[in-house]
């Protein structure tokens, strides 16, 4: 299985970079992982809804350049569906059984994802009603993918 994480913004903090590198290393025995970062737009203070929509559209344009039509697309969005780690593991496993060989996860910038990205998604996933920094979300997603593979393979992983 190939897993691509398409995300808006660069990781600036070393502790996030270190965690991402660790999970990427751990995942290398289970899948082919690719992380693609696209530039984020600077958001002015007190941005209007029009400015917010324009920023998300620019970031969306950058993400769309990397979309593969044959990939299964999962967006991370507050309004998405929630599932336990066990259900997430089973979901990823079932995608493979159905013949999906490439999953693309999308993580938006500080304003979220462009509407075009949300609409083209095959699935919308939420980790919480809370808002998390997009850099931290990358770490959380990688940890859950890793946990999911451990569960699928019947390998021990703390609960």
UniProtKB/TrEMBL annotation:
Keywords: Cytoplasm, Methyltransferase, rRNA processing, S-adenosyl-L-methionine, Transferase. Its EC number is 2.1.1.177. The keyword Magnesium does not apply. GO terms for molecular function: methyltransferase activity. It is found in: Cytoplasm. InterPro entries: Alpha/beta_knot_MTases, RlmH-like, tRNA_m1G_MTases_N. It is an enzyme of class 2 (transferase). S-adenosyl-L-methionine binds at residues 76, 108, 127-132. The keyword Methyltransferase applies. Pfam families: SPOUT_MTase. One of its GO terms (biological process) is methylation. PANTHER family: METHYLTRANSFERASE, RIBOSOMAL RNA LARGE SUBUNIT METHYLTRANSFERASE H. Homodimer. Belongs to the RNA methyltransferase RlmH family. This is Ribosomal RNA large subunit methyltransferase H.
